[in-house]
Structure prediction request, 379 residues.
Amino acid sequence: MVSFLRRGTAVGLLVAVSSCGVFSSDCALTDGACDPLIGYLSTQRWPYCFETTNVPYPLFLSGTESVIAGQASAFDNLDGVGTAARFQAPRGLATDCVSLFAFDQFNHNVRRIDLATNTVTTLAGSTSSPTGTSGSADGVGTAASFASPRGGAATERYVYVADTGNHTIRQIDKENGNTITIAGSAGSGAYVDGPGSSARFNFPASIAVVGQNLYIADQNNFAVRRLSLKDLSVITFAGGTQGTTDGVGTSAQLDGIVAGIATDGTNLYLPDSANHIIRRINLATAQVTTIAGQVGVTGTTDAVGTAALFNSPRGAVSDGLTLYVADRNNSSIRTINLTTLAVGTLISGLATAPEGDPAVTLNRLYYGGYTLATINVVQ
Prediction:
């Protein structure tokens, strides 16, 4: 656990939200039980939540579900406040702890939800109604176009998009909505490592940010790719062949659907959906290990590690202490204690199945899905 500074003295612990970045202890905590603060990593700022004691302050989620935006069975492409907004399968989510970003697959756009007001706006992509229009154009705001984006990640300045149907990785400047393509080539689904537009992906589905690297779940290549933000070079970090074998880097095998990816800053976590298991990839060594679930076996069993059972897990997010898994075919949100690997169920019997990466802030977990017209919160 990483210590932080309070009035110049290290007296507490980083408690959440590691999905917003990796903390560097160079800012002071003001008074308050738990406040969103600004820390610094390189030149980027990250909001966090801290506790003023020496003990971890975990998320206290009760499993109560409600809708923060959109309306069930009302599919459209409309901005608005809360339930007045409309979506078309907001599958993956990301957060910078101020806003929630929904990758609205069938509207071919990226939506922003203000977490203070639940106001939904279109950050980039099509605003045509009742369904957005696909494309691959770079541009500012609605002049940009996407093709079925399924996931991404947010930093203080940028949103990175897995533009799945275009086989590309896009970058959106949150300040002005300017969208550029930073890797891959639209319409060219293939498997090539290399710099920027020379690299090729095949249905990239999700992104995790660690420092100056993007880690990309490259679905149809059965691989996790690493994109350096320094020089835009793309390499295969793990996988690259279909299968279930654990191992180091490209000696490991992954299977489709490689639907989501999460990080706690030390490891990547990958729901291996077709195998019904959760894989861990060490960022320092690229060692791939199966940490929960059993290959080819479905179920709802809560237990420790490989004694637990899942059914087509499609996304995950970490708060640094716990991994939250969107267990699609069980219509539930499962939890994995990252120290003990004990698997639990946060909430089950969801009205619609969660799919794609959830997002987490203090005392809130947000999820979307393939068949959803809403953004939902568990608190």
Q: What stands out?
A: The chain has no helices and 32 strands.
